[in-house]
């Protein structure tokens, strides 16, 4: 972790091992750099101290592997690659893009119709569930129990993408999801990266939101030139590794009801929006980094003009707070408050990344927040189970 004051007083004297005694969230190489940085850090120190208090909540996962591996990954005593190897999925199937070790051929990128979980049947959602959730699922424990998945399974590392989107849909309570069968839900998904290699996992939305045809436009610079405008339709769950599983047997009721159609767009949302067709029912961006990238400014101005709910996730609470400040600055006078305040995402990825800038609790999709157009009617309370 870099010294937070290194940019103020020349080169650092050594590794950043000295923590701020008040918040414990940032590190320094020396007392000299800590003192030099205090005027800047003092503005956020108490806020970060409060955010550090959420650590017990954020590190609380039901999975058998997260108690020790999350901390070991943070300290680089183990790695995601070693974990994937222990599950025999390193570089395989849906996991090919998980660690960055493997680059897929351009002709294979983003298609993935035939990729599978490479996990046993009780480790992944390879078949249709017996019924839809009775209410809005609000934790990994509820989801795994409902799907009958073992808590030894690492599937949540990939399922964080579709389930974070599901959670956003439930928070938004979109009127496009109604009691009529075969209703369509249109989502604009901004800034995808690893998700582009794991598109078949989004079929899980059909188990969570049954009898709904879901169309997702993935828009972002990470879409390759060759994949621009590609469309893919998914109507079956990704298979498990068990040869005798019902997910591989024809005639078995193992497929979901409905379709997930994806379309890929290369570039920024504000540049490509006019080509996408009608306005979406929901805008979503995972690990958005709104405060870090100025390219969000024209996108935010466009989003607020569309009068649709827009929800975002980010890695830590401080990033989410800075994002909300950026949103208020960019759309000042056009929107009074956040419709969806910063809150913990129950479907955050259960392993902490190694390249953290702060010692704050940090996970992919850790926090969720969002805005709604100023003049649009509020979401119907009858279409989906109530959010927490």
Automatic annotation (TrEMBL):
Gene Ontology molecular functions: zinc ion binding
* Occurrences of domain MYND-type (ranges): 1-45
Keywords from the UniProt entry: Metal-binding, Zinc, Zinc-finger
Q: Return the Pfam families for the record.
A: MSS51_C, zf-MYND
The organism's place on the tree of life at top rank: Eukaryota
| UniProt-listed PROSITE patterns | ZF_MYND_1, ZF_MYND_2
- What PANTHER family does the record tag this protein with? ZINC ION BINDING PROTEIN
| Name of the protein described by the UniProt record | MYND-type domain-containing protein
């Amino acid at each position: 972790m870099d010294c937070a004051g290194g940019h103020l007083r020349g080169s650092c004297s050594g590794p950043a091992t000295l923590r701020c005694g008040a918040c414990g969230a940032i590190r320094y190489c020396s007392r000299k750099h800590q003192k030099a940085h205090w005027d800047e850090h003092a503005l956020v120190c108490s806020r970060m101290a409060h955010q550090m208090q959420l650590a017990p909540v954020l590190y609380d996962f039901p999975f058998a592997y997260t108690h020790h591996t999350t901390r070991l990954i943070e300290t680089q005593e183990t790695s995601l690659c070693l974990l994937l190897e222990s599950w025999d999925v390193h570089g395989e199937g849906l996991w090919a893009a998980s660690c960055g070790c493997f680059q897929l051929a351009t002709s294979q990128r983003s298609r993935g119709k035939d990729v599978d979980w490479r996990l046993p049947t009780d480790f992944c959602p390879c078949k249709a569930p017996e019924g839809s959730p009775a209410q809005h699922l609000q934790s990994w424990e509820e989801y795994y129990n409902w799907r009958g998945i073992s808590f030894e399974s690492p599937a949540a590392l990939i399922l964080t993408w579709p389930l974070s989107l599901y959670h956003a849909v439930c928070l938004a309570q979109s009127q496009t999801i109604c009691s009529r069968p075969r209703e369509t839900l249109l989502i604009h998904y901004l800034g995808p990266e690893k998700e582009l290699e794991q598109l078949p996992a989004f079929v899980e939305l059909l188990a969570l939101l049954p009898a709904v045809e879901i169309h997702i436009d993935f828009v972002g610079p990470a879409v390759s030139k060759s994949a621009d405008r590609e469309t893919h339709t998914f109507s079956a769950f990704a298979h498990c590794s068990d040869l005798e599983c019902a997910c591989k047997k024809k005639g078995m009721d193992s497929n979901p009801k409905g379709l997930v159609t994806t379309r890929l767009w290369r570039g920024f949302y504000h540049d490509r929006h006019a080509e996408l067709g009608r306005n979406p029912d929901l805008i979503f961006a995972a690990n958005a980094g709104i405060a870090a990238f100025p390219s969000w400014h024209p996108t935010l101005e466009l989003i607020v003009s569309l009068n649709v709910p827009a929800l975002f996730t980010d890695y830590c609470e401080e990033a989410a707070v800075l994002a909300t400040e950026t949103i208020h600055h960019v759309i000042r006078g056009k929107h009074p408050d956040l419709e969806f305040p910063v809150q913990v995402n129950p479907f955050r990825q259960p392993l902490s990344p190694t390249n953290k800038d702060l010692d704050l609790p940090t996970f992919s999709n850790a926090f969720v927040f969002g805005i709604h157009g100023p003049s649009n009617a509020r979401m119907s309370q009858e279409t989906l189970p109530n959010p927490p």
